[in-house]
Design goal:
By secondary structure, this protein is α/β, with parallel strands linked by helices. The chain has three domains: 3-165, Tetratricopeptide repeat domain (Serine Threonine Protein Phosphatase 5, Tetratricopeptide repeat); 169-266, Collagenase ColT, N-terminal domain (Glutaredoxin, 3-Layer(aba) Sandwich); 268-377, no CATH class. Helix content is 62%, strand content 6%. The chain has helices at 25-57, 61-74, 79-91, 95-108, 114-129, 133-146, 150-162, 189-210, 226-233, 257-264, 275-284, 292-303, 309-314, 321-348, 353-360, 363-376; strands at 173-176, 180-184, 218-223, 239-241, 246-250. The chain has a five-stranded mixed β-sheet. Helix 2 runs antiparallel to helix 3 (79-91). The longest helix is centred in the N-terminal third of the chain and has 33 residues, at 25-57. It is globular. The two termini are 48 Å apart. Residues 1-23 and 35-43 have low confidence and may be disordered. Bound molecules: zinc ion (ZN). The site of zinc ion has 4 residues, from helix 10 and helix 11.
């Protein structure tokens, strides 16, 4: 996201020498003075753009916003300041405020440079989050077509695929409901009706617990073919992008898993995710009646192994999903049953064992021990 900004550091001084035909000494003196002054001002501006770029790249968006506003007082039409201010606001989720600054950069970058490309890319994201899909598509595609810099073009292309702007989606059916904007690859009208009502019900059930307020409706892509998704998105179904409130799912997947990723991630400020807790939560709320305890116990017997929660918490990826998913769902349920909704959500933003210990206290280790004993026998 920040890579394109390296260009700032090699920006060239483009001020022109104010040529004069006067040969008199006094005029040469004035001219020389002007050149020196101009150079100093330009040098100062470059330094400031460089400084602002560095602050932005460090991820300190609040400071970027303060500094950009400060620099804009003396140089109100500077497209670098406007671009960085717009990007920082967008990165903070203030999409409405970001748009005028990004628009300014698009309209005033006469060179169609990487600045315009990034402004367009970010505009595409802002409009998407504000559910202005036409303008989102327009800006994102313009960014891609401009092909000004590899990273901005890649940024746009990722969104063209994820947001459903690729031509591949042109025949998909879009249907909006209370909490979703569904995109169906291929489904009959009567099945669509059933699908939507079951997902709305699942949403209500899940959010009764999380009480999340989503920034937008969930764009829910319902694929008919896993192979098509793999070919286009280079990813296995299903997956969620909570930041954009997007789900890409196969039509046969569980009602609740992917939408829980979106809903839960908006219940609190997310600091650190772990597989055990993040996946466990989505499994716990997947709205199926699957006997997860039996699945886990069968796995333990078949593989002749014992489960250690702390080990799986740390090394999630070292274990097969057929074990970790149902196991994590059971464990999250255990946490909620023992410590209650409020404590669980307080903990959820930082999903490490250390934070669990901090929030749940000394009782945590006993809960884990009892859980392991129950599962391992
Ligand atoms: Zn998941």
């Amino acid at each position: 996201m920040f890579n394109g900004y390296i260009c700032l550091l090699v920006r060239q001084n483009s001020k022109k020498d104010p040529a004069t035909k006067q040969k008199q000494y006094i005029m040469r003196l004035i001219s020389t003075t002007i050149i020196i002054l101009t150079s100093l001002i330009t040098f100062g501006q470059n330094k400031q753009v460089e400084e602002l770029g560095k602050i932005y790249m460090s991820g300190d968006f609040d400071k970027t916003i303060i500094k950009a506003n400060e620099f804009l007082i003396n140089d109100p039409n500077n497209i670098d300041y406007k671009l960085l201010l717009g990007r920082a606001l967008a990165d903070k989720g203030d999409f409405n405020s970001a748009i005028p600054y990004l628009d300014f950069t698009v309209k005033n970058d006469q060179n169609n440079s990487w600045r315009k490309a990034w402004a367009l890319g970010y505009l595409g994201t802002c409009h998407f989050m504000l559910q202005d899909y036409d303008n989102s598509r327009k800006s994102t595609k313009e960014c891609f077509d401009l092909n000004a810099t590899k990273n901005a073009t890649r940024y746009a292309y990722k969104r063209i695929l994820l947001f459903g702007f690729d031509d591949f989606y042109k025949d998909w059916k879009i249907v909006e409901s209370d909490n979703f904007r569904f995109h169906f690859q291929n489904m009959s009208d009567s099945d669509i009706e059933k699908y939507i009502s079951s997902r709305e019900k699942a949403f209500e059930n899940i959010n009764e617990f999380f009480e999340s307020k989503l920034p937008k409706k969930i764009d829910f892509f319902v694929w008919n073919s896993r192979e098509d998704a793999k070919k286009l998105l280079k990813a296995n179904l299903g997956f969620a992008d909570p930041g954009f409130c997007i789900v890409h799912s196969h039509f046969q997947q569980t009602k609740g898993h992917e939408m829980t990723h979106v809903i839960s991630n908006h219940a609190t400020k997310m600091v650190k995710k772990t597989g055990l807790i993040n996946e466990g939560t989505s499994v716990c709320f997947d709205q199926t009646n699957q006997d997860k305890e039996k699945i886990v116990k069968d796995w333990i017997i078949t593989n002749n192994k014992k489960i250690t929660i702390k080990e799986i918490w740390t090394n999630w990826k070292d274990y097969p999903e057929e074990l970790t998913y149902p196991l994590s769902g059971l464990f999250v349920k255990e946490l909620i049953d023992n410590f209650g909704r409020e404590k669980f959500i307080e903990f959820f933003g930082n999903q490490t064992y250390d934070n669990a210990k901090l929030i749940f206290g000394v009782k945590l280790d006993k809960v884990i021990k009892d859980f392991e004993n129950k599962i391992n026998t």
